[in-house]
Each structure stands twice: as structure tokens, then as C-alpha cells.
Amino acid sequence: MMRTRMICLHTGLVLVLTALSCVARADAIYKWRDADGVVHYGNTLPAKDAGLAVTTMDKHGLVVKQTPAAPTEQQRQAMQAEAARQARLQAAQIEQQRQDTALLNTYTSPSEIDLARDHNLKLVQLVINGIQSRLGLLYDKRQQLLRESGGNIPTSGNTAIEFNANEQHIRDLTTQLQQKNRELAATRSKYDAEKARFIELTSKSRPSQVQ
Question: Residue 14 in contact with residue 8, Cβ under 8 Å?
Fold first, then answer.
């Protein structure tokens, strides 16, 4: 049994040495394992085995390069997804740095942010007040037109035309009012977030006090 194993090992070694000697004149010798797990040596890689892991050796049999197997389609898609995620993360970090720099260059204290917030809220509120005043007039106009038509919605004549135009104006202004109310809330949130970020950034730059 031992003699048989010795003979097999000797035969295998002879085959490897023979393969290496056959390609000794080549500049490079390739070693690869095919899809069936069989190890091959040669100075060219068959097209059917392209993409497999390959060990490149010089004519003396010394390893000069290790080429990993080409990624599978699933692995390639995973790598692309990770690269895209990293790109988004990097872009977000750059944008955050830009915003932080702009914030620190715009304000010198949290109270300045409060003043800017109150100023912008006042501007939006003035528009809201104007819309509400115009809506009040339109609601009065609606009641007037309803009285003129005996308490019913007019369906014909000039009164109906005027009533419909008034209703459309009410709808338009109501939409504008809703938009401005959302803008008011967004403005308040924006400045509150900027104030919190400003405090965070400036507190990091202050030296810690020794207790």
C-alpha cells in the first residue's frame, strides 16, 4: 500500500515537472484550477477558463503574480451597489462640510440666527395676513351673492358668473394660504436646525474647561 502511494506521488511529480519543462521556454507559466477542480499548467490560458483564479510563475517556477477569479454577476452587482453607496456617502459628507462652512461664515452667535429666523418668519407672516384679509373680503362677497339669489347658489345669469369667479378666487387663495403656512413651518424648522448645528460646531471648537 505504501509502495503504491509512493509510486502515485512520484508519478504526479513527474507530470508536474514534465508540464513545467514543456513550457520552460515560455516567459510565463500559468497554473489554474478549472471548474471541475482539475489543476492545469500551461503558457496560455484557454478561453473556457478565462476569469478563473490564476497563478503566474516565471520559467523557473517562482510565483510572480496571483490573479484572483473574476467576480460573479452577483458579486459584481454587490460591488457596484457598495461603490454607489460610498459615492453617495462621500457626496453627503462634502455637502455637509459646505453647509457647515457657510453656516459659520454667516453667523457669529446663536442670537444672530434667532434674529434671522424672526425676520424671515415675519415676512412670511405678512403674506399670510394679506391672504387672510383678501379671503375675508371674498367670503363677504360670497354671502352677498347668496343673499341676492335668495340664499341659494346662483346657477344662471351674471350673478352665477360672478359667484363662480369668486369661488375660484377663494380656492386659489386657500391654496396659497396652505403653501405659506407650510413655508412658515419649514422656515422655523430650518433656522432651529441651523441654530442647533451652529451650537454643536462652535462647542466642538471651544477648549474644554478644567474642572
Answer: no
* 152 burial type by CB count under 10 A (0-12 exposed, 13-18 middle, 19+ buried): exposed
Extract the C-alpha cell encoding 134.
Answer: 383678501
CA 58, CA 64: separation in Å to the nearest integer?
A: 7
Measured distance between the N- and C-terminal CA atoms of the chain, rounded to whole angstroms: 81
Cell of 150: 335668495
How many whole angstroms separate alpha carbon 79 and alpha carbon 87?
12
The cell numbers describing 136, all together, are: 375675508
Amino acid at site 169? H
Could you read off the pLDDT tens digit of each residue along the chain, which spans 211 residues? 444 444 444 444 444 445 444 444 457 888 888 777 888 888 887 877 777 888 888 877 788 888 887 787 888 899 899 999 999 999 999 999 999 999 999 999 999 999 999 999 999 999 999 999 999 999 999 999 999 898 899 888 999 999 999 999 999 999 999 999 999 999 999 999 999 999 999 997 665 544 4
**What's the rounded Cα separation, in Å, for the pair 27 and 19?**
14
What lies within 8 Å, CB to CB, of 98 at 6+ separation is none
Q: What's the pTM?
A: 0.59
Contact 166, 174 (CB under 8 A): no
Angle between helices 110-148 and 157-205 (to 10 degrees): 170
Q: Cell numbers 457657510 label which residue?
A: 102
User: E strand or H helix at 2, and its extent?
Assistant: helix 2-22
